[in-house]
């Protein structure tokens, strides 16, 4: 079995694809599912995790191979979710980390669902109670693209995509945000300089690889709120809200108001290291996907 195996911590560019990895086996007596992986999602945290600096599991989409008696899933079911070892041809997953993949979505689209969509949706809708103006920093990535769409759903002006674009790598971008928003705000430290009085800054991750240190006097002077959102903890701490979020996201997809935005360049397990390097170097946009296996003529992509 081909798999991206981390035998010792290193940058992804120094990890070779394993062609003879042992196939995973569900634990006897458990509810585990054995899944044929069709597509997996590439993430900034993969770069951190391969170096021992992160805990989240990679998202994936595929078909169930085996399921225990009494399971809500059966062989052949199309699913998406997350599991350690997801960058491989097969993986074992706990059913609590898996959901049915809607027939209207491809495996590539499903592999981009599990982390980016609920994180952006709950950050803006649930945690920040999105209102008039929603500046989105790093809007070209998977999370950012979703956040832009959600901002537009609530009729918010979205700085970073859709209505306005600001290059945050250029000096003076804070002033440009103030100009666009009529004096209101829009990387956390710099964003706090131009945030509106009483505004809210959402922390969804650290794509730059470094955890920022804040000068809290800006929070005080702006009467601002800093709100964290870690989707990985919702299953444990708020399972009811987890189900609600997915129902709301699926409804938006069904209505056509929310769409998958995938980077057109497809990677494979053989080129996964290159894909992560391109992601790290900001050479991609949207959700980056690795095509693990080509679809059958009868199946969806």
TrEMBL record:
- Under the cellular component aspect of Gene Ontology, which terms does the record hold? mitochondrion
Per its record, what are the GO molecular function terms?
oxidoreductase activity
Protein known as: Chaperonin 10-like protein
Instruction: Kindly give the Pfam families that the UniProt entry links to this protein.
Output: ADH_N (PF08240), ADH_zinc_N (PF00107)
Residues of the Enoyl reductase (ER) domain: 10-290
Signal peptide region: none
